[in-house]
Amino acid sequence: MRTDQPKVIHLKDYKAPDYLIDETHLTFELHEDHTMVHTQLVMRRNPERAGESADVALPPLMLDGQELELVSLFLDDIELTRTDFVLDDSHLTLQPTAERFVVDSSVRIHPELNTALEGLYKSGKMFCTQCEAEGFRKITYYLDRPDVMSRFTTTVSGEQERYPVLLSNGNPIASGTDESGRHWATWEDPFKKPAYLFALVAGDLWCVEDSFTTMSGRSVALRIYVDPENIDKCQHAMDSLKKSMKWDEEVYGREYDLDIFMIVAVNDFNMGAMENKGLNIFNSSAVLAKAETATDAAHQRVEAIVAHEYFHNWSGNRVTCRDWFQLSLKEGFTVFRDAEFSADMNSRTVKRIEDVAYLRTHQFAEDAGPMAHSIRPDSFIEISNFYTLTIYEKGSEVLRMIHTLVGAEGFRRGSDLYFDRHDGQAVTCDDFVKAMEDANGVDLTQFKRWYSQAGTPRLDISEQYDEAAARYALTFRQSCPPTPGQAEKLPFVIPVELGLLGAGGREIPLRLEGEDSASGLNRVLSVTDPEQTFVFVDVTEKPLPSLLRGFSAPVKWSFPYTRDQLMFLMQHDTDGFNRWDAGQQLSVQVLQGVIDQHQQGAVMQLDTRLVDAFAHVLADTSLDQAMVAEMLSLPSEAYLTEVAQVADPDAIHAAREYARRFLAGALFDVLWKRYAENRAISKATPYRAEANEIARRSLQNIALSYLMLEGQEQVVAACLDQFDDSDNMTEKLSVMAVLVNSPFEEARADALRRFADTFKDNPLVMDQWFSVQAGSPLPGGLDRVKALMEHPAFTVKNPNKVRALIGAFANQNLVNFHQKDGSGYRFLADQVITLNALNPQIASRLLAPLTRWRKYDDARQSLMRGELERILASGSLSSDVYEVVSKSLA
Ligand code: TRP
Ligand code: ZN
């Protein structure tokens, strides 16, 4: 907990370390009521810094350390006494007397009491670690910063019976048994690494084993360690790992470098997973998957996260970050890599749709809120607060733009140069961009504003057509709203991928004024000025532009399309992503009309063009079924909130539900047909988590969710049949989700009860059970959530449970969370206050919905601010919660 004023860390204050750690030798003695950590650091003065102060004495050595009980300390074999060093609650400072020296320390720590899940802690009966970003300082005194890279050897000792498996990074080099039932194992990691990549695991684990032969012919042992009861849920993760290893060789030329690669699944974990060198530690929700217990979405998430962590071996581990301001260097790049991997393994268009919908809903909201920051922030109080959608998702978009600008081959040349140049180093985002520039002979100076400027740029586009001259002009005006600490922004480089559609959807060859001939039907323009016009020539009919294809830049763009034009694009655009996007734009326009009607107390009426558009989509058998499912999904309430000036959660919910019912009624027969044919196939074939089948089930299930709104007996019967007679969680859970929102109380209660009976011992399935209920918009949502918190399967100490119940309520159940009496806000603030003391990272993340107060009406604003103030006044706050609350109130 914070005792003094929190310190703001600035990028501009970066200094290379005074000392380096060549070798790190760790010994852990694990016990039930404490753990001893003995550390030997082989250190020397950093030659890079020595020059600056050559004539003065050696600077003091300030080691990071928190919540450690120092038992002994030696400098070059001489024990230091209390007067030889200075100890406060975050540092141990001592005075070296030579350029090279060895520090030996012994500390006692308490993993068994660690509820923050940072450092060494217990998840169930197992010991595990989470060191990123600054958790290693809770294990031992160290230079806990990513630019200090060291070679580690680790010895772990524990009771043989309780902890038969003892793991750390690298290769096992020795093991043995001690006195009285204890044993030990020593691991050596041949690669230098920063402390945040350290890992240790001890437990009674089973493993699934496989192997991979790398492109140079080396055999790598692959192991996934899990609690024994989960041994049947590892195959999908193992398959995903092998695909990832192959893909990284093929697409980036990157080979794995150790003889063994391990994944361990733990139940208590703050995030998705962690890329520790050779020993990835995963939230069990990001590893375990099999048909009966995990949905299609869960299978795809496992594939993506396994890939993400594996890809970090190069983008993060071999080449790491100089400091935490460079976090997007590894995270943005690795998200981009995993997104491309998923696109190659599944449907590229559908993957892009999912990612863009997520970015526009959640990252745009973050960028418009009090915590807005650029992908390379200038300052922070608590780095854990910067593992954000901006660093990850927008960071990935920035790399995608570089990819678009230099092309796939140019990007590969750039990444080869980057890995070559910087292997074994801790570097900056500038180093990455420099490699891209040097490999391609391009100047990305202006482009780099994406790294330093926060906020979502606006791009307003208009057209001018001169029929007589056959000239078509597009004018782009860019701007970017102010964000905290950045009032004025300079123009960005915005890549605009586009095409022009003529009659019947024919694509018009693109020739810009001044060019000798047309070059293609699709091209990328670089918008670099505040206002810029591009003139296309030889345009003999008035075209309809298809703009920002594939979402070529993370901006909010507008073009004055009519609804009929959007319908045309939905049917005829050759870019699949833009077909979907046109549908979204149409839906937003139509829904905003209904929202206005609801707010004015008028009768709600739906523009029936939306019905026609959906009917076309349903009739188009050339479309991938997953595309159909995406195109039938109305923009979420969260997205409608994001695009509103002042969000009215009641009107948004009412309008969207009205539209869904209207569509269900108007399209019932065709929805039923597509449901029934796909359901028949699901019933007749065993489950496979494969793209076509996932696509089929997603259409089946969205059709069912519409059909249930009509409440016909035939549908309810189909629903119950799907619940009872299905071999997979995808079909079961989608029934649950429609039932909890339906008026059929008996069927609902029955399904919920039977589901819980069946799965009460499977925590990940129970998370789903909590989530669907927490998300139900039926009245009384808060009371249902409070009641569920008393359920034996719930505990506030497990982050997955908190996310499944409290997080789902605050983020997905907007009508209930935003109740006008402020009860939802009060509840969330209470949970944040409780969690602040237990797990600051989770408390701080849970808080996000309250930070969005500027989006709402005055009454809601003051209620939300009131709760933020109550949190601020609640006592001793963690730096995590303090930073978010104080910035939100500023
Ligand atoms: N580097 C991890 C990833 O991107 C992120 C991570 C895992 C993390 N656990 C964490 C970040 C805990 C902060 C705190 O996959
Ligand atoms: Zn990552």
TrEMBL record:
The keyword DNA repair does not apply. Residues 237-450 form the Peptidase M1 membrane alanine aminopeptidase domain. One of its GO terms (molecular function) is alanyl aminopeptidase activity. Its EC number is 3.4.11.2. GO terms for biological process: proteolysis. Keywords: Aminopeptidase, Hydrolase, Metal-binding, Metalloprotease, Protease, Zinc. The keyword RNA-binding does not apply. Residues 564-890 form the Peptidase M1 alanyl aminopeptidase C-terminal domain. It catalyses: Release of an N-terminal amino acid, Xaa-|-Yaa- from a peptide, amide or arylamide. Xaa is preferably Ala, but may be most amino acids including Pro (slow action). When a terminal hydrophobic residue is followed by a prolyl residue, the two may be released as an intact Xaa-Pro dipeptide. Coiled coil: none annotated. PANTHER family: PUROMYCIN-SENSITIVE AMINOPEPTIDASE. Belongs to the peptidase M1 family. Aminopeptidase N is involved in the degradation of intracellular peptides generated by protein breakdown during normal growth as well as in response to nutrient starvation. This is Aminopeptidase N. It comes from Pseudomonas matsuisoli. The lineage of its organism: Bacteria, Pseudomonadati, Pseudomonadota, Gammaproteobacteria, Pseudomonadales.
